[in-house]
Amino acid sequence: MFRPRDRSGSPQPILAAKQRRQLHPFFFRMGPVALSLSSVLLMGLMAILYLTQLGQAVAANQRLQDTRTQQADLQRQNQDLVYTIAQEQSPAYIAAKAKSLGLVPADPKAVQVVVVRHLRPIPKHNQDIEP
């Protein structure tokens, strides 16, 4: 590092080397006014970013609440439809509806059965065709 003859007493090369080794960030060289303005600008930017994130979180929460409300309405509607289907499939309801339309039960002795030759049954895998 140092040679014995360089230690003669000149402090300037040592001071210059120390200054080169030290890292001085830019804001240490700024004056108090510039530093204050930079701080205020950075705080303002952070506040804007925070408020933007907060607004996005509120909007996401509102969408979530709307979706939950819609889900509850659809579940309620589904329960109503299941109840209606169960009610309309009951034999008592079918008999009452048939009577209101003027239909009467058929006499089993008077029923004629028609047999169609070469009729193939409907395959079970296609449920859309079957009633």
Q: What composes the largest sheet?
A: none
Which descriptor suits the 3D outline? rod-shaped
Span between termini: 100 Å
Strand content: under 5%
The helix fraction, in percent, is: 55-70%
Radius of gyration: 45 Å
Mean pLDDT: 83
Tally of structural domains:
1
Low-confidence segments, given as residue ranges, are none
From the helix content, strand content and strand pairing, which structural class follows?
Answer: mainly alpha
Total beta strands = 0
Order of helices and strands: HHHH
Q: How many helices does DSSP assign?
A: 4
Chain-wise SSE layout:
Layout: H1 12-21, H2 26-29, H3 32-88, H4 91-100
Structure description:
With 131 residues, the chain is mostly helical. It has one domain. It contains 4 helices and no strands. The longest helix has 57 residues, at 32-88. The chain starts with 11 loop residues before the first helix and ends in a 31-residue tail after the last helix.
Summed up, what is this model?
The chain is mainly α. It is 62% helix and 0% strand.
Keywords, please?
131 residues; mainly alpha
